[in-house]
Specification:
One of its GO terms (molecular function) is RNA binding. This protein is α+β, with helices and mostly antiparallel strands and 224 residues long. The protein contains 7 helices and 8 strands, in the order αβαββαβααβαββαβ.
Length: 224
C-alpha cells in the first residue's frame, strides 16, 4: 500500500527520493556498508547504503540507510527482512535526520527494555539496553483491553491486531448507552501482547480517534 502523490506536488522522482525508496534500519555495530548491502540486495536494486557513525570517534551507531531504485523494492525490504532490523521508511532528507535517528533509537530501545522476552529480538546485538523499571512493574499478560470513543468493527480490529503474530481471538463489544467501543484481545504469548500494546496504544483508528490499549489479568504468572 502506497500513499498517492498529488499531481501538483512536483517531480515524482523527487518524492520517491525523499519518501518512498529510502529505508532506515537498526544493525549490529560491526556491520560495514558492504555487509548492509549484502543483507538487503535480495529485495531489489540498491542505489546506495550508508552507515551512521559517531562524528567524533568514527564508530558505527548501529543505524543505517538503504536506498532502492523503486518504492516497491523498499516496501518489500521492510515487509520481508528480519524483524530485528526494525526497518521503516526514512524521513525525507530535508527534515532533521538527527532528531529522527534519536526518536527511532529511543523508541526501539524502550521496546527492547525487556531483553530477550520479545520474539523479534533475533540478534543479541539488539538486546543490551537498560531495563525500564516502570515497564517491569507493570502487570503483564497475554490479554489486552482496547477502549475507543467510537464503535469498533470486529473484522477491522482483528486485521489491525493480527499484524502482530500470535493473535488468538478478538472480541468486540459496544456500550449501547455511550456508543463507545470496547474489545478484548488475546495472544498466544505475553511477548506478542507486549509488542502489540507498544505499537498500538495511542494508534489513531479511525483517524482522529486514539485507541487505549492496556493489559488485562489473564491468571498467568507475569514474571515469565
Amino acid at each position: 500500500v502506497f500513499i498517492a502523490q498529488s499531481r501538483a506536488s512536483g517531480s515524482h522522482r523527487d518524492v520517491e527520493d525523499e519518501e518512498l525508496t529510502r529505508i532506515f534500519v537498526m544493525i549490529p555495530k560491526s556491520y560495514t556498508e558492504e555487509d548492509l548491502r549484502e543483507k538487503f540486495k535480495m529485495y531489489g536494486d540498491i542505489e546506495y547504503c550508508s552507515i551512521i557513525k559517531n562524528k567524533t570517534t568514527g564508530e558505527s551507531k548501529g543505524l543505517g540507510y538503504v536506498r532502492y531504485l523503486k518504492p516497491s523494492q523498499a516496501a518489500r525490504a521492510i515487509e520481508e527482512c528480519d524483524r530485528s532490523y526494525r526497518a521503516i521508511l526514512a524521513e525525507p532528507k530535508n527534515k532533521s535526520s538527527e532528531s529522527f535517528e534519536h526518536d527511532y533509537y529511543s523508541n526501539n530501545t524502550r521496546q527492547e527494555s525487556r531483553g530477550n522476552t520479545l520474539p523479534f529480538c533475533g540478534q543479541p546485538e539488539f538486546c543490551g539496553f537498560e531495563k525500564n523499571e516502570s515497564r517491569i512493574q507493570e502487570s503483564i499478560s497475554k490479554r489486552l483491553s482496547v477502549v475507543s470513543r467510537l464503535p469498533l468493527i470486529q473484522e477491522q480490529l482483528f486485521a489491525l491486531f493480527d499484524l502482530v503474530p500470535g493473535l488468538e481471538y478478538c472480541d468486540v463489544q459496544r456500550d449501547p448507552h455511550t456508543n463507545s467501543g470496547y474489545a478484548v484481545i488475546q495472544y498466544s504469548t505475553a511477548a506478542s501482547a507486549i509488542y502489540a500494546k507498544y505499537k498500538l496504544h495511542g494508534f489513531e483508528y479511525p483517524p482522529g480517534n486514539r485507541l487505549t490499549v492496556i493489559f488485562l489479568e489473564d491468571g498467568s504468572d507475569s514474571s515469565e
